[in-house]
Amino acid sequence: MNLPDGLHQVADGLHLWSPGHPGTWGFANCLLIVSGTEAALVDTPYDRPMTEALIDLARPLLPVGATVGTIVNTHVNGDHTFGNGLFPGADIIATKAGAEHLCREPSPQQMHFLTHATPADEPLGRYAREHFGRYRYDDVEAVPPTVTFAGRYDLRIGGTDVELIEVGPAHSAGDLIVHLPAQRVVCAGDVLFADDHPVHWNGPLSQVAAACETILALGPEVIVPGHGPLMTPADVRRHLSYLRELAERIEAGHTAGRTASETAAAILADGFHDHLGLPERIVILTAVEYRHLDGDLSEPDLIQLAGRAAQWAYGARAPRA
Ligand SMILES: [Zn+2]
Protein backbone atom coordinates (compact mmCIF):
# COMPACT_ATOMS: atom_id res chain seq x y z
CA MET A 1 0.00 0.00 0.00
CA ASN A 2 1.04 3.56 -0.59
CA LEU A 3 2.10 5.15 2.69
CA PRO A 4 3.42 8.66 3.43
CA ASP A 5 7.13 9.14 2.82
CA GLY A 6 7.39 11.72 5.59
CA LEU A 7 5.61 13.60 8.31
CA HIS A 8 4.29 17.02 7.41
CA GLN A 9 4.96 19.91 9.79
CA VAL A 10 1.63 21.49 10.73
CA ALA A 11 3.07 23.97 13.26
CA ASP A 12 6.11 24.27 15.48
CA GLY A 13 6.65 20.84 17.06
CA LEU A 14 3.59 19.28 15.40
CA HIS A 15 4.13 16.70 12.66
CA LEU A 16 1.30 14.99 10.80
CA TRP A 17 1.36 11.45 9.43
CA SER A 18 -1.49 11.51 6.93
CA PRO A 19 -1.94 8.35 4.86
CA GLY A 20 -4.77 9.88 2.78
CA HIS A 21 -6.50 7.51 0.31
CA PRO A 22 -9.98 8.97 -0.22
CA GLY A 23 -12.71 6.38 -0.69
CA THR A 24 -11.17 3.93 1.76
CA TRP A 25 -11.62 2.89 5.38
CA GLY A 26 -8.90 2.70 8.00
CA PHE A 27 -6.22 5.18 6.94
CA ALA A 28 -6.37 7.53 9.94
CA ASN A 29 -4.27 10.62 10.60
CA CYS A 30 -1.77 10.60 13.47
CA LEU A 31 -0.17 13.73 14.93
CA LEU A 32 3.27 13.66 16.55
CA ILE A 33 3.86 16.31 19.23
CA VAL A 34 7.50 17.02 20.04
CA SER A 35 8.76 19.52 22.61
CA GLY A 36 11.90 19.70 24.73
CA THR A 37 12.85 16.13 25.56
CA GLU A 38 9.35 14.69 25.25
CA ALA A 39 7.05 13.39 22.54
CA ALA A 40 3.42 12.30 22.28
CA LEU A 41 1.36 10.79 19.50
CA VAL A 42 -2.32 11.43 18.86
CA ASP A 43 -3.79 8.13 17.58
CA THR A 44 -1.90 5.10 16.28
CA PRO A 45 -2.33 3.34 12.90
CA TYR A 46 -4.47 0.31 12.16
CA ASP A 47 -1.79 -2.36 11.91
CA ARG A 48 1.82 -3.19 12.67
CA PRO A 49 3.40 -2.46 9.25
CA MET A 50 1.83 1.01 9.16
CA THR A 51 2.79 1.74 12.76
CA GLU A 52 6.38 0.63 12.14
CA ALA A 53 6.51 2.85 9.05
CA LEU A 54 5.33 5.81 11.12
CA ILE A 55 7.85 5.07 13.89
CA ASP A 56 10.70 4.97 11.33
CA LEU A 57 9.69 8.35 9.91
CA ALA A 58 9.18 9.88 13.35
CA ARG A 59 12.52 8.76 14.79
CA PRO A 60 14.63 11.59 13.28
CA LEU A 61 12.13 14.14 14.61
CA LEU A 62 12.42 12.96 18.22
CA PRO A 63 14.82 14.56 20.68
CA VAL A 64 18.00 12.51 21.10
CA GLY A 65 17.30 9.51 23.32
CA ALA A 66 13.59 10.30 23.58
CA THR A 67 10.71 7.96 22.78
CA VAL A 68 7.01 8.56 22.42
CA GLY A 69 6.00 8.55 26.09
CA THR A 70 2.32 9.44 25.67
CA ILE A 71 -0.34 8.15 23.31
CA VAL A 72 -3.68 9.90 23.08
CA ASN A 73 -6.53 7.92 21.50
CA THR A 74 -9.21 10.29 20.19
CA HIS A 75 -11.59 7.31 20.44
CA VAL A 76 -11.23 3.54 20.59
CA ASN A 77 -11.96 2.43 16.98
CA GLY A 78 -9.18 0.06 15.88
CA ASP A 79 -7.99 2.32 13.08
CA HIS A 80 -6.90 4.81 15.78
CA THR A 81 -5.66 2.36 18.41
CA PHE A 82 -4.37 -0.97 17.08
CA GLY A 83 -0.83 0.47 16.92
CA ASN A 84 -0.86 1.26 20.67
CA GLY A 85 1.09 -1.89 21.53
CA LEU A 86 4.11 -0.74 19.54
CA PHE A 87 4.85 1.99 22.08
CA PRO A 88 5.81 -0.05 25.14
CA GLY A 89 5.78 1.86 28.40
CA ALA A 90 3.84 4.81 27.01
CA ASP A 91 0.84 6.20 28.87
CA ILE A 92 -2.24 5.62 26.74
CA ILE A 93 -4.91 8.24 27.38
CA ALA A 94 -8.56 8.03 26.33
CA THR A 95 -11.92 8.95 27.76
CA LYS A 96 -13.48 6.77 30.43
CA ALA A 97 -16.55 6.35 28.21
CA GLY A 98 -14.33 5.18 25.34
CA ALA A 99 -12.58 2.63 27.56
CA GLU A 100 -15.91 1.35 28.86
CA HIS A 101 -17.11 0.72 25.31
CA LEU A 102 -14.00 -1.08 24.09
CA CYS A 103 -15.95 -4.33 24.28
CA ARG A 104 -18.24 -3.01 21.51
CA GLU A 105 -15.32 -2.65 19.08
CA PRO A 106 -14.39 -5.42 16.67
CA SER A 107 -11.11 -6.92 17.95
CA PRO A 108 -8.14 -7.60 15.62
CA GLN A 109 -9.15 -11.29 15.74
CA GLN A 110 -12.69 -10.43 14.63
CA MET A 111 -11.35 -8.20 11.85
CA HIS A 112 -9.07 -11.02 10.70
CA PHE A 113 -12.06 -13.37 10.64
CA LEU A 114 -14.19 -10.82 8.81
CA THR A 115 -11.58 -10.31 6.09
CA HIS A 116 -10.61 -13.97 5.69
CA ALA A 117 -13.34 -16.31 6.85
CA THR A 118 -16.64 -14.70 5.89
CA PRO A 119 -18.25 -15.76 2.59
CA ALA A 120 -16.47 -13.73 -0.10
CA ASP A 121 -19.49 -13.87 -2.39
CA GLU A 122 -21.81 -12.18 0.12
CA PRO A 123 -21.89 -8.39 0.46
CA LEU A 124 -20.32 -8.15 3.93
CA GLY A 125 -17.51 -10.59 3.13
CA ARG A 126 -16.81 -8.90 -0.18
CA TYR A 127 -16.89 -5.42 1.36
CA ALA A 128 -14.65 -6.46 4.25
CA ARG A 129 -12.06 -7.88 1.85
CA GLU A 130 -12.22 -4.84 -0.44
CA HIS A 131 -11.90 -2.22 2.30
CA PHE A 132 -10.13 -3.98 5.18
CA GLY A 133 -8.26 -6.82 3.45
CA ARG A 134 -5.22 -4.60 2.96
CA TYR A 135 -4.53 -4.49 6.71
CA ARG A 136 -2.88 -7.14 8.85
CA TYR A 137 -4.79 -8.06 11.96
CA ASP A 138 -2.99 -11.29 12.87
CA ASP A 139 -0.07 -9.70 14.69
CA VAL A 140 -1.59 -6.78 16.60
CA GLU A 141 -3.45 -6.78 19.86
CA ALA A 142 -5.89 -4.22 21.17
CA VAL A 143 -4.00 -2.50 23.99
CA PRO A 144 -6.46 -0.58 26.18
CA PRO A 145 -5.89 2.87 27.65
CA THR A 146 -3.88 3.16 30.86
CA VAL A 147 -5.20 6.61 31.82
CA THR A 148 -8.84 7.62 31.44
CA PHE A 149 -10.76 10.77 32.23
CA ALA A 150 -14.15 12.40 31.85
CA GLY A 151 -14.66 16.01 30.82
CA ARG A 152 -11.22 17.48 30.43
CA TYR A 153 -7.60 16.49 30.92
CA ASP A 154 -4.63 18.85 30.64
CA LEU A 155 -1.23 17.57 29.61
CA ARG A 156 2.16 19.14 29.17
CA ILE A 157 4.52 17.59 26.64
CA GLY A 158 7.87 19.34 27.16
CA GLY A 159 6.85 22.98 26.87
CA THR A 160 3.66 22.35 24.91
CA ASP A 161 0.23 22.62 26.50
CA VAL A 162 -2.15 19.94 25.28
CA GLU A 163 -5.81 20.06 26.28
CA LEU A 164 -7.95 16.95 25.89
CA ILE A 165 -11.66 17.78 25.73
CA GLU A 166 -14.34 15.10 25.82
CA VAL A 167 -16.96 15.73 23.11
CA GLY A 168 -18.65 12.33 23.02
CA PRO A 169 -20.84 10.55 22.68
CA ALA A 170 -20.78 11.66 19.05
CA HIS A 171 -18.86 9.61 16.47
CA SER A 172 -18.38 6.95 19.14
CA ALA A 173 -19.38 6.60 22.77
CA GLY A 174 -16.22 8.28 24.02
CA ASP A 175 -14.71 10.86 21.67
CA LEU A 176 -12.16 13.46 22.65
CA ILE A 177 -10.57 16.30 20.72
CA VAL A 178 -7.01 17.54 21.22
CA HIS A 179 -6.50 21.29 21.48
CA LEU A 180 -3.04 22.81 21.10
CA PRO A 181 -3.81 26.41 22.06
CA ALA A 182 -0.40 27.95 21.34
CA GLN A 183 -0.30 26.41 17.84
CA ARG A 184 -4.03 26.99 17.22
CA VAL A 185 -4.44 23.41 16.08
CA VAL A 186 -7.22 20.96 16.97
CA CYS A 187 -7.19 17.21 16.30
CA ALA A 188 -10.81 16.28 15.77
CA GLY A 189 -10.54 12.50 15.58
CA ASP A 190 -13.50 11.04 13.70
CA VAL A 191 -15.79 13.91 14.65
CA LEU A 192 -14.55 15.11 11.24
CA PHE A 193 -13.84 13.36 7.95
CA ALA A 194 -12.52 15.19 4.88
CA ASP A 195 -13.08 13.96 1.29
CA ASP A 196 -15.42 11.09 2.21
CA HIS A 197 -18.88 10.87 3.73
CA PRO A 198 -18.43 10.53 7.49
CA VAL A 199 -19.43 7.47 9.44
CA HIS A 200 -20.77 7.79 12.98
CA TRP A 201 -21.51 4.73 15.05
CA ASN A 202 -23.02 6.40 18.08
CA GLY A 203 -24.65 9.70 17.10
CA PRO A 204 -27.02 11.35 17.08
CA LEU A 205 -25.89 13.74 14.34
CA SER A 206 -26.81 16.70 16.55
CA GLN A 207 -24.09 15.57 18.98
CA VAL A 208 -21.53 15.39 16.17
CA ALA A 209 -22.59 18.90 15.14
CA ALA A 210 -22.20 20.07 18.75
CA ALA A 211 -18.67 18.63 18.77
CA CYS A 212 -17.92 20.58 15.57
CA GLU A 213 -19.20 23.74 17.28
CA THR A 214 -16.88 23.05 20.22
CA ILE A 215 -13.97 22.82 17.80
CA LEU A 216 -14.86 26.12 16.11
CA ALA A 217 -15.29 27.86 19.49
CA LEU A 218 -11.63 27.09 20.27
CA GLY A 219 -10.62 29.39 17.40
CA PRO A 220 -8.22 27.02 15.60
CA GLU A 221 -6.43 27.88 12.38
CA VAL A 222 -5.86 24.26 11.40
CA ILE A 223 -8.07 21.26 12.13
CA VAL A 224 -6.76 17.71 11.74
CA PRO A 225 -9.70 15.45 10.81
CA GLY A 226 -9.66 11.76 11.67
CA HIS A 227 -9.26 10.94 7.98
CA GLY A 228 -8.28 13.03 4.97
CA PRO A 229 -6.49 16.34 4.42
CA LEU A 230 -6.22 19.22 6.90
CA MET A 231 -9.29 21.43 7.28
CA THR A 232 -9.89 25.12 7.87
CA PRO A 233 -12.64 26.57 10.08
CA ALA A 234 -14.58 27.29 6.85
CA ASP A 235 -14.39 23.57 5.97
CA VAL A 236 -15.76 22.71 9.39
CA ARG A 237 -18.64 25.17 8.95
CA ARG A 238 -19.44 23.57 5.59
CA HIS A 239 -19.42 20.18 7.23
CA LEU A 240 -21.82 21.47 9.89
CA SER A 241 -24.28 22.31 7.10
CA TYR A 242 -23.88 18.77 5.75
CA LEU A 243 -24.66 17.28 9.17
CA ARG A 244 -27.71 19.48 9.72
CA GLU A 245 -29.08 18.91 6.24
CA LEU A 246 -28.66 15.16 6.60
CA ALA A 247 -30.27 15.11 10.06
CA GLU A 248 -33.26 17.05 8.67
CA ARG A 249 -33.71 14.67 5.76
CA ILE A 250 -33.51 11.62 7.98
CA GLU A 251 -35.97 13.07 10.46
CA ALA A 252 -38.38 13.91 7.63
CA GLY A 253 -38.23 10.30 6.39
CA HIS A 254 -38.82 9.02 9.90
CA THR A 255 -41.78 11.34 10.41
CA ALA A 256 -43.24 10.19 7.07
CA GLY A 257 -43.17 6.60 8.32
CA ARG A 258 -40.49 5.36 5.94
CA THR A 259 -38.01 2.71 7.08
CA ALA A 260 -34.38 3.66 7.64
CA SER A 261 -33.45 1.80 4.47
CA GLU A 262 -36.08 3.61 2.40
CA THR A 263 -34.95 6.97 3.77
CA ALA A 264 -31.28 6.22 3.08
CA ALA A 265 -32.10 5.03 -0.43
CA ALA A 266 -34.03 8.26 -1.13
CA ILE A 267 -31.19 10.46 0.16
CA LEU A 268 -28.68 8.52 -1.96
CA ALA A 269 -30.91 8.63 -5.03
CA ASP A 270 -30.93 12.44 -4.69
CA GLY A 271 -27.13 12.45 -4.99
CA PHE A 272 -26.64 13.96 -1.53
CA HIS A 273 -23.11 15.52 -1.51
CA ASP A 274 -22.13 13.00 -4.16
CA HIS A 275 -18.68 14.54 -4.65
CA LEU A 276 -17.72 12.71 -1.43
CA GLY A 277 -16.46 9.14 -1.33
CA LEU A 278 -18.11 6.11 0.33
CA PRO A 279 -21.78 7.09 -0.16
CA GLU A 280 -22.83 3.77 1.40
CA ARG A 281 -22.00 5.32 4.76
CA ILE A 282 -25.31 7.19 4.45
CA VAL A 283 -26.98 3.82 5.06
CA ILE A 284 -25.13 3.54 8.40
CA LEU A 285 -25.71 7.17 9.37
CA THR A 286 -29.43 6.82 8.69
CA ALA A 287 -29.76 3.55 10.61
CA VAL A 288 -27.94 5.06 13.61
CA GLU A 289 -30.05 8.23 13.52
CA TYR A 290 -33.23 6.14 13.40
CA ARG A 291 -32.14 4.37 16.57
CA HIS A 292 -32.12 7.71 18.36
CA LEU A 293 -35.40 8.83 16.81
CA ASP A 294 -36.93 5.50 17.92
CA GLY A 295 -35.49 5.84 21.44
CA ASP A 296 -33.57 2.59 20.99
CA LEU A 297 -30.94 2.57 23.74
CA SER A 298 -29.44 -0.86 22.98
CA GLU A 299 -25.83 -1.18 21.87
CA PRO A 300 -25.51 -0.79 18.08
CA ASP A 301 -24.12 -3.79 16.19
CA LEU A 302 -21.28 -2.35 14.12
CA ILE A 303 -20.84 -5.41 11.93
CA GLN A 304 -24.55 -5.56 11.14
CA LEU A 305 -24.52 -1.84 10.24
CA ALA A 306 -21.53 -2.38 7.95
CA GLY A 307 -23.37 -5.30 6.33
CA ARG A 308 -26.28 -3.03 5.42
CA ALA A 309 -23.88 -0.51 3.85
CA ALA A 310 -22.19 -3.32 1.92
CA GLN A 311 -25.53 -4.50 0.59
CA TRP A 312 -26.20 -1.04 -0.84
CA ALA A 313 -22.64 -0.67 -2.14
CA TYR A 314 -22.96 -3.78 -4.29
CA GLY A 315 -25.97 -2.66 -6.15
CA ALA A 316 -28.89 -3.78 -4.06
CA ARG A 317 -29.47 -0.02 -3.82
CA ALA A 318 -32.51 -0.69 -1.67
CA PRO A 319 -31.20 -2.56 1.37
CA ARG A 320 -33.70 -4.46 3.45
CA ALA A 321 -34.92 -2.72 6.60
ZN1 LIG B 1 -11.31 6.41 11.93
UniProtKB/TrEMBL annotation:
SUPFAM superfamilies: Metallo-hydrolase/oxidoreductase. Residues 27-227 form the Metallo-beta-lactamase domain. SMART domains: Lactamase_B. It comes from the Bacteria. Signal peptide: none annotated. InterPro entries: Metallo-B-lactamas, NDM-1-like, RibonucZ/Hydroxyglut_hydro. Pfam families: Lactamase_B. Coiled coil: none annotated. This is MBL fold metallo-hydrolase.
